[in-house]
Amino acid sequence: MSRARPTPSRPASRPPQSRRRLGLHAAALLLITPLGATARAQQAAATAPPTARAAAAPPREVVINRETYAYQGAGRRDPYASLMNSTDVRPLLSDLRLTGIGFDPDGRNSVAIMRDLHSKAQYRVRVGQQVGRLRVTAISPRSVDFAIEAFGYSRTETLLLSRDSSTTRAP
Prior knowledge:
Elements: H1 16-47, H2 50-56, E1 96-102, E2 111-116, E3 122-125, E4 130-131, E5 134-139, E6 143-150, E7 153-160
Antiparallel strand pairs: 1-2, 2-3, 4-5, 5-6, 6-7
């Protein structure tokens, strides 16, 4: 008849010197294992076929493709240019004074002469020509009609012949 041995409630403690050795062995194992695994992975990559190596190797050059956009700017202003300091918006209609009209009754060869009050520049325009954002739509004996395109909207304005230039010459 065998009797069961009573188990101690607390395990026997190891001497401090053996605990220290166990800790050093564990630390050495932790240091050696990753290095050994890395060396084994490098050796496996070196002995692998070239196609496997190329697939495993990260790409050396990164190529970034950008979306491109082509802007057909024929007869239009640059959409990226500032409107505040652009000469394309000048002259304004309020800056112009109509000083003379060479009117053709057939309407094909009429010429309007305008002067910019700020820059003192002179403009001679025909129907269809553009000055800044102003496009000449019609020339009559006493006025010039303009189409003004601003911010996607178009409006029509009329510039009347000034009173001091109302003298006409006989042809």
